[in-house]
Design brief:
Elements: E1 2-3, E2 6-11, H1 16-27, H2 32-35, H3 39-47, E3 53-60, E4 63-74, E5 77-85, H4 94-107, E6 112-118, H5 122-130, E7 134-140, E8 148-155
Parallel strand pairs: 5-6
Antiparallel strand pairs: 1-2, 2-3, 3-4, 4-5, 6-8, 7-8
Amino acid sequence: MSVAGIEMLAVPALEPAPAEAMGRVLAGMDPWATLGYSADTLARGLALAHPDLIRYVAMRDGAPLGLATIRYPWLRGAYIELFAVLPQAQGGGVGDALLNHVELTYRSRTGNLWLLVSGFNARARRFYERAGFGPVGTLSDLVLPGEDEILMRKRL
């Protein structure tokens, strides 16, 4: 599928070299940098194949721009386990295109789309709120002591 020149590639797991490259980039970005995720941990997660996980990689001209890892089924819906737009692609509509793709993909399967956003990640929270997600709960100290994770939901 192509949206505004962005192609969405659905894969069960990233191959080792792209997973390592993506892990290095994500480890240097928030929220993962603040939460202390290592490049190796992120790469292993991205390369992990699991029947309940699918990755959508936003690409343009063969180069990755961002990705979303979706866990389905999850709590009567689909859960956005990881959502990232690479630094060089931020502000160009990649996040909107990727999130719209996820919503369209799961709209016929379920009535809910879920995610967690770190309380300190105000920019991401605004992005999700503009997209129609609302907070449903706060999980304190879930990933890092002293930091909240906000559970958000969008009814599809």
